Amino acid sequence: MRIIICGAGQVGYGIAEKLATENNDVTVIDQSPRLVNAIRDTLDVRGFVGHGSHPDVLARAGAEEADMLIAVTFYDEVNMIACQVAHSLFSLPTKIARIRSQTYLAKHWSNLFSRDNLPIDVVISPEVEVGEMVLRRLAQPGAVETIPFADDKVTVLGIACDEECPVIDTPLRQLTELFPDLNATVVGIFRSGQLFVPRSADQMMAGDLVYVVTNSERVKRTLTIFGKEDTLGSRVVIGGGGNIGHYVANHLEERNPRAKIKVIEVDRERAVHIAEALDRTVVLHGSAMDEVILKEADIADADTMIAVTNDDKVNILSCVMAKRLGARRTMSLLNDPAFPPLVRTIGIDAFVDPRAVTISRILQHVRRGRIRNVHTIQNGAAEVIEAEALETSPLVGRPLSELDLPKGIRIGAILHENEVIVPTGASQIRKGDRLVIFATADQVPRVEQMARVSLEYF
Fold first, then answer.
1. Which end of the chain is more exposed for a tag (fewer CB within 10 A), N or C?
2. Which residues pair with 184 in a beta bridge?
3. Rounded distance between C-alpha atoms, residue 228 and residue 141, angstroms
């Protein structure tokens, strides 16, 4: 696939890195010679210095032959015009744009991005995506990651196993015997910096981060079995009143009338603005790293401290300080990929990576075959993929025990006629079923093939 990426920042680089390793023909455009040189020096991609929405730059980048344009510059207007130019002058088939300003996304302007107006096929709003992820994690405080699939009927949980976890040191094949109502599948384990798909004889160990696929109706029971019985908290302190902080506070007000929400915002004008826009939220003007402000926000009584400022270091330090002052749980927004490996060692309970969220949304539209949803795991080490079983697929009509799936692939759930099935060796996939599949990065192309044609390719 020939893909042009406008923007060589963290998201653009991450997308280019992922797509280039999968043998796509990738070209990156950015106005910064430094970023373009860096991406050309480290990745097998072409790079052009220029304005991503200028016709001559897109022409030099090969827009006439391209299959997809992904516009992820820092400016919404550049991303939108790049898509318009790609459509009007080059008839480029698929156009994806990152749009941050919420005014463009208001419901009463929903016709803006139609083919007759601004022809953008997929609009991605990082603030909305990240805000929803934060809200999902607040709803399931026992999990460090919560990812919905199959129209929210299936959930993938990331669960940190500690010394008190009841299921550690137990072979996976015995879990169903010990807990007949588990109704979940362990599909991945992250241990000592390595991610792998476990076999039935493998055991979970203290310190593991385990990825579990379960029926969404059984999430609470699954967390209980793993020793995670945290109750839903209603006292929330949000550090940062930007788009994400405002989105989370606003939707918490709507979804949890009992929630007591406080937002800390360092910019006075912004603090006044969101205080006027929110109904029941208390807005404090100050720094989320200021101990006096945190105490004024009653951090010692808070169920969760969420740090979502634009500065990773502020987020990390404010979470560490909040935990020291008595907050039960902390969650941090982290943009720099160097920070996530550190958070568990310093006491931060969960983090959200906007870069990974955006890349996951884009991959959903890049993946070949009948792919409905994609989420990257551990900085691209694996993906959870929702795929539809086609009639031509050899997955259809045979017991899973006979499929001999490649190492690194595990089917976590089957959605058949709105019923979630936990797969066993005797389970059979039927035409039209939706599968939630965990795959290590090297096996993703095989999953794409499974969603298209026969396993004879392998």
1. C
2. 214
3. 8
Residue 273's pLDDT is what? Answer: 95
Across the chain, which has 458 residues, the per-10-residue mean pLDDT values are 94 91 92 95 95 96 96 95 96 94 83 86 90 89 89 93 89 85 90 92 92 93 86 87 94 91 96 94 96 96 94 94 94 86 80 86 79 88 91 83 88 93 90 93 86 50
CA separation for the pair 123, 276 (Å, rounded):
28
pLDDT of residue 455: 41
Q: List the one residue out of 306, 300, 325, 234 whose CA is nearest residue 263.
A: 306
Q: What is the DSSP string of 109-165?
A: GGGGGSTTSS--SEEE-HHHHHHHHHHHHHHSTT-SEEEEETTTTEEEEEEE--TT-
At 26, is the secondary structure helix, strand, or coil? strand
Q: Taking a C-beta distance cutoff of 8 angstroms, is the pair 194, 188 a contact?
A: no
CB 198 within 8 A of CB 137: no
Taking residue 91's Cβ as centre, other Cβ atoms within 10 Å add up to 9
pLDDT, residue 3, reads 96
Nearest Cα neighbor of 282 from 308, 256, 259, 255 is 259
For residue 5, what is the enclosing H or E element?
strand 2-6
Name residues whose C-beta falls within 8 Å of residue 290's C-beta, 6 or more positions apart in sequence. Answer: none
Q: What tokens appear for 270 in the block?
A: 């912004």
Packing angle, helices 126-139 and 243-255, rounded to 10:
40
**Of 119, 78, 125, 133, the residue nearest 100 (C-alpha):** 125
CA 22/CA 102 separation, integer angstroms: 33
Say if CB 216 and CB 150 are below 8 A apart: no
CA 137 to chain centre: 12
Answer for the pair 26, 19: CB distance below 8 angstroms, yes or no: yes
Q: How far apart are CA 457 and CA 231, in angstroms?
A: 48
> DSSP code of 99?
-
How far from 233 is each of 162, 354, 440, CA to CA, in Å?
21, 24, 34
pLDDT at 369: 64
What tokens appear for 121 in the block?
A: 């096929």
Angle at CA of residue 144, ends 447 and 321, nearest 5°? 145
Give the integer Cα–Cα distance in Å for 102 and 273: 15
